């Protein structure tokens, strides 16, 4: 039997200096990643790791992993970061595309969909909500302070601890963070601090109604950065929102849940719609240049008009 051909892969720089990786071919899916120590193009093991995250969605799509641009204004907000993506998307694509954001990338994706609804066809928000939870916000700011004060091991131990689903996994992950912290933050730049501050000030609850794209919010009930209620509020506040909430999953384990990939794919390509709906026609990518180089969750804000959700069962709607 002949070997399966590898999926097409490219990497380079998007308009505005945003580093990208792309894998697969077909309908575009824009992936906004979580927090990174810097906004330089990933290389070596980091590039391979980031690419592996995209592969489950690349069988019938070209998945674009696009990070925030380097050299952010120190006072940049989430709206400013989303505007960078919007400008680049208008130059790269001929119409709205599906967007998936994970963790910090999910916060950016929510802002993008609220501020630039014409650019987003379908939206998937993974391990993110309309604001960080109290513990998530406090931890992120401690991480920033530790990095600035020259304590990379402490910073990464704290960050990794928050990825766990319970006390046991949090202890293990914290220990791994302590061991790897010096290397992980060795090339951290001011963009890390800027992004953390931007997310600290991020609160989109009152804007959720401006998101017109069909939206799937995916979260873990034991995510230390958020709370189940924050995930529920986010899905309920978006007019065409739905929620997949996984029991016993933390920030890291949400994407390893066996339901995750099928939930996302069935949402992006519902069986009763052609793959290119609801926009009607496929979105074309502009020709790319040759690669240049490689509650604890915060104050609850219940809405009087918010519809009740049924967590993972809501996918059946």
From TrEMBL:
One of its GO terms (molecular function) is hydrolase activity. This is Hydrolase. Transmembrane segments: none annotated. Residues 55-263 form the AB hydrolase-1 domain. Residues 266-317 are annotated as: Disordered. The keyword Hydrolase applies. It comes from Cryobacterium arcticum. It comes from the Bacteria. Keywords: Hydrolase. InterPro entries: AB_hydrolase, AB_hydrolase_1, AB_hydrolase_fold.
